[in-house]
Amino acid sequence: MIPDDARFLRVVSFVIHRHEGGDSDHSADAGGKTRYGISKAAYPAEFAGRLVPNLQRAVEIYWKDYWTPLSCSSIQSDAIAAKVFDLAVNMGTGRAGHILQEAVNLLRDDQLAVDGKVGSVTLRAVNMTRHPSALVAVLCGLQWAFYQGLIERKPSQRIFAAGWARRSSWSGVA
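Above: the chain sequence. Below: its structure as tokens.
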């Protein structure tokens, strides 16, 4: 069932059409075969037999497994919620939570625990951010730094650098 959350639907539509749309089966992609950004590696049952996720199923997965665990509906800034969701879709919820907490810590004196769990303390800190655009900029920078480290560790991933650069420069839904 697709949720009745206008902000989520706007963000997920943008992410699917701008970053995750269509089918992919690139040999260098650890996720293997993907459809609408849903990978066979992460969701093998969705690819069982002749089944592959349709758009409605992809949106349901994104709501349940990416938007909800990071409490994106509780993030007041649309731009921050959208960027955190995009991080989760591409990197997983744990890494997205870590990057969010690291970004918040770079902009504050008192530090959050960086455990990847977006609970009430993290949400309060995110929602107290006076300049959401600054937090989004830091999120983008940390995202790119992660990709650079990945390319250094696994040079075969350089093939994705241009797409990752576009993704890490994106700061909100158009």
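The domain at 6-169 is CATH 1.20.141.10 (Chitosanase, subunit A; domain 1).
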